[in-house]
Specification:
360 residues; mainly beta; 8-stranded mixed beta sheet; 2 helices; 10% helix; 50% strand
Length: 360
């Protein structure tokens, strides 16, 4: 019996001890610091120029002496209370930004984070078009780059085994000069810089430099800026480049290495698949691959200011198969600066169209 009593005493001791441990654990849990952002929630979209609310759940167990707020790594506010506040997006680049609340108290500090996406401040203006003239075009050319200089089109045609660089007579579509790429290369965007022509390749991570007058290849350069080589343009100071994302890279005009970039957004989100480029009156025009749209982009901010809908340039039944329809899409923008003429083209299209923009 004594043995049985002893066992019962031990059981009671374990039960009481466990209960005390549970109470203690609950007490500790009740007072554990839990700090997080109530606002903004992760991924909040904020139009550029607008303010957004900032509120932190601080917890009640530790004294808060001060809070420093940072956007990315820049201090934007400092408070000695835990009240909500508003922060501005003025001056922030479009795209994702990290928000940090650095909380100080009792000789310690703790970082709490969230993030916001800054979008274009307003919806883009919408345009359609009027066809002024249809010019003949080689339907064997899978257009990747198109420019107009001194009365001629300069064109980069893509596709493995069919890639080339061309100089074309606009009136007749006749190829005046041509150099073919080796079959292992897929020709992509091109641009004229003074007496040279620069041409990218798709996935081969190399670019070619040609003499503009003779089309003789002068040299090559390594292309490592984007995930792939897509579009090129030259604004007179730097080279613009796309890689199929929503980023436009800026490259040095002599070394072709990255010197900057902008991310492109409208008022709803990022514009992916940016492709062929042209700079017109200080704005960037960009094809959106597989669509009938051209975006007009602010080169300083990346905001889409206008959108051109070019649906209907070709008859809907011109390309017969789904493969042709999916691949032979709008791609090619050229501008005659002297004559103020805008030209657009597509992959294996029978025409290059001179168009005039019409506001919807």
């Amino acid at each position: 019996m004594r043995f049985g009593l002893k066992i019962n005493h031990i059981k009671n001791f374990i039960f009481v001890g466990s209960a005390l441990a549970l109470v203690t654990a609950c007490k500790e849990s009740a007072t554990t610091t839990y700090r997080s952002f109530v606002s903004p929630l992760t991924g909040l979209n904020v139009p550029s120029g607008n303010e957004f609310d900032v509120k932190v759940l601080f917890g009640a167990d530790q004294k808060v002496d001060s809070v420093v707020y940072l956007i990315d790594t820049v201090k934007v506010a400092s408070k000695t209370d835990t009240l909500a506040l508003k922060l501005k997006t003025n001056g922030l680049k479009l795209g994702n930004h990290l928000l940090t609340a650095k909380v100080f108290g009792e000789g310690k500090s703790e970082d709490i984070t969230s993030n916001i996406n800054v979008l274009a401040g307003q919806a883009p203006a919408e345009y359609t078009y009027k066809v002024i003239r249809s010019l003949p075009h080689d339907t064997a050319s899978y257009v990747e780059g198109l420019e107009y200089h001194d009365g001629f089109f300069y064109e980069s045609a893509g596709d493995y085994g069919h890639s080339s660089l061309r100089k074309v007579d606009p009136a007749t579509g006749k190829i005046l000069q041509k150099t073919d790429l080796d079959k292992q290369y897929f020709g992509e965007g091109m641009t004229v810089i003074g007496n040279k022509i620069i041409q990218l390749t798709y996935r081969e991570k190399v670019g070619f430099i040609y003499d503009r007058a003779t089309f003789k290849k002068l040299s090559e350069f390594s292309y490592t800026t984007g995930r792939e080589g897509w579009g090129l343009a030259f604004d007179g100071e730097k080279v613009l480049n796309t890689d199929g994302s929503n980023t436009i890279f800026f490259l040095d005009k002599d070394t072709y290495q990255k010197i900057g970039s902008i991310d492109v957004f409208d008022n709803k989100g990022p514009i992916q698949n940016l492709n062929e480029l042209e700079v017109i009156d200080g704005k960037i025009y960009a094809n959106v691959y597989t669509t009938n749209e051209i975006m007009i982009i602010n080169p300083e901010t990346g905001a889409v200011e206008s959108k051109i809908d070019l649906s209907g340039l070709l008859p809907a039944d011109y390309f017969k198969t789904d493969d042709e329809k999916n691949n032979n899409v709008l791609n090619g923008i050229a501008y005659d600066k002297a004559g103020k003429r805008l030209f657009v083209a597509g992959k294996k299209w029978p025409h290059i169209f001179q168009i005039e923009l019409v506001k919807k």
